[in-house]
Amino acid sequence: MAKQEKKDRQAVIDSIRKEQRGSEQRRGLAIVGVCVVIAVLIIGAAAFKPVKDWYDLRQYSGSSLDKIGIAADECSKITTEKAQGNQDHVPVGTELTYEDAPPAFGQHWDVWDTIDRKIYGESDRPELGELVHNLEHGYTLLWYDETIAEDDKAMDDLRGIASKLDSTTNLRHKFKVVPWTSEDGKAFPKGQHVAMTHWSIGGPGTTDPEKAVGAWQYCSEPSGEALVDFMEKYPYMDSPEPDAV
Question: What b/e readout covers 156-177, taking b as 16+ CB neighbours within 10 angstroms?
Answer without folding.
Answer: bbbbbbbbbbeeeeebebbbbb
